[in-house]
Amino acid sequence: MQLKWFSVFNKKNGPYKKLFCFPYAGGNASTFASWHNSLPGHVSVLGLQFPGRAGRIAEVPIDDMEELTTIVADNMCALIDDDYIMLGHSLGARVAFEVALKLVRKGFPGPKDFIASASPAPSVKRKDAPIYDLPETEFLEALRNMGGTPEIVLQNEELKTIFIPALRADFKLVDSYQQSLSKLNSRAHVFYGTGDHTVPLKDAKAWDLHFTRNCTLNAVDGNHFFIDSNKEKVLSLVADIIG
């Protein structure tokens, strides 16, 4: 089932839990398309689809965190009807966190469980220089060094024309994110990559500051994109959290 902002990969009838998944910069909802096959049968998986990619490729990407998270929260309101779970990877974790705060301010319950994957905590000040506004050659080289963006996109002129605006918008979200000290009353779980040199362990542990309960910390073998390279481990951890 395709909604404008969320792809529902396994629509269910009767009581079930919803897992809202937020992709990394440059990613899209398809990362989570097969997840329901490895999760308990009472779980429905919904993947956030940013404008400017996949089925929304013709739409203008959003590069302002406040605007983006306000719209996403508004669209989630109609989808929340019971306990729900939020998971975000890298940029997606910070987007999910800001969306959850907005939902609470609207009077909705926060997520029962919040999973922050491969992301520094919102309170951690970004140390790297911005890349979103670099000249194209330098921007592409920065993406290549990070990994995660297919080489065919970085080399093909037509694909670059299509995807670079969305990538720049995503990295503007990353580069301009304002530190937050807010807290959620959710069970919190942090996933970090054992070979992820972009998110120091202390920055991942700092998520503990943003919840009224202690965070669980879970190591996953792999680099920053372990959500793709070690999907089996990630899904095993998610399944255990959902129960």
Core attributes:
Rossmann fold, 7-stranded mixed sheet, 16% strand, alpha/beta, globular, 243 residues, 8 helices
Walk me through this protein's architecture.
- The chain is α/β, with parallel strands linked by helices.
- The protein has one domain (6-124, 181-242): Alpha/Beta hydrolase fold, catalytic domain (Rossmann fold).
- Helices cover 35% and strands 16% of the residues.
- It contains eight helices and seven strands; from the N terminus they run βββαβαβαααβαβαα.
- The chain has helices spanning 65-77, 91-105, 136-146, 151-155, 157-176, 201-205, 226-229, 231-242; strands spanning 6-8, 17-22, 43-48, 84-89, 113-117, 187-193, 215-220.
- Strands 1-3-2-4-5-6-7 form a seven-stranded mixed beta sheet, sandwiched between helices.
- Strand 6, helix 6 and strand 7 form a beta-alpha-beta unit.
- Helix 1 (65-77) crosses helix 2.
- The two termini are 25 Å apart.
- The mean pLDDT is 91.
CATH superfamily: Alpha/Beta hydrolase fold, catalytic domain
CATH class call:
Alpha Beta
Can you count the beta strands?
7
Indicate how many domains the architecture comprises. Answer: 1
User: At the third CATH level, what is the topology name?
Assistant: Rossmann fold
CATH architecture assignment name? 3-Layer(aba) Sandwich
Strand content: 15-25%
| H/E element sequence | EEEHEHEHHHEHEHH
Q: What is the terminal-to-terminal distance?
A: 25 Å
Low-confidence stretches: none
Family: Belongs to the thioesterase family.
Protein name: Thioesterase II family protein
Pfam families: Thioesterase
Organism: Microbulbifer taiwanensis
